[in-house]
Amino acid sequence: MARRRRKQEELSPTAVLFLFLLGLIVFGWYSSAPLLVGAGVIGLGGAVWHQVNSAKRRRARTLALQDLQSLSHRQFELHVAAVIAALPGWQAEATRGSSDQGADVIAISPQRVRVAVQVKHYPTNNVGNKAVQEIVASKAIYRCSEAVVVTSGPGYTRAAVELARANGVKLWGPDDLFRLQTQASAKQAAPRELLPA
Ranges for the Restriction endonuclease type IV Mrr domain (predicted)? Predict the structure, then answer.
């Protein structure tokens, strides 16, 4: 997912314009010193603008990740519920702490699809397959047809990924949560690869 975004960000509109003008000059369709200088200035300005904005986005994401990791486990559960509830037509509520039966958040889609969400606040560790086992078991308890495990940490163990794939459980990382926040802020539907329609 991150690779796909990077490829889309590689060429800014200014860079495309610069390459187009450079192509005209190289192929001799238009040879003018002012055009060459103008294209150079536009290209250089566009490259600087692109680098500054990329640095700002990276810095904002780092700050957001630090903010996320500074939350307590309960605050992280409430945050996940709030992000899902902010999506158009979605409802989400955090369950009651220690007696949650493996689901920390129960979400309901606009089409009334119930989703059980297990939240793991592990800023530095990968989530193991126990979390996947727990959310699979909680689907029946909460009458959910979908299940998600979300972590604030670096990712999941290979065993967790294999078990999730075998049971149709979606695994989210911080990037997925940030993506949902962006969708919610823009009042756009959740991406289907993260939540059902």
Answer: 68-180
Q: Exposed/middle/buried for 103, CB within 10 Å: 0-12, 13-18, 19+?
A: buried
Q: Render pLDDT for 68-109 as a digit per residue (tens, 0 to 9).
A: 778 888 988 999 999 999 999 999 999 986 666 789 999 999
* Torsion on CA atoms 14, 20, 21, 22, rounded to nearest 10: 110
pTM over 0.90: no
User: Is the dihedral angle over the CA atoms 45, 47, 49, 52 positive or is it negative?
Assistant: negative
For residue 9, what pLDDT is reported?
A: 47
- CA dihedral sign, ordered 23, 24, 29, 34: negative
**Tokens for 9?**
């960000």
Task: State which fold the 73-185 domain adopts.
Answer: Trna Endonuclease; Chain: A, domain 1 (3.40.1350)
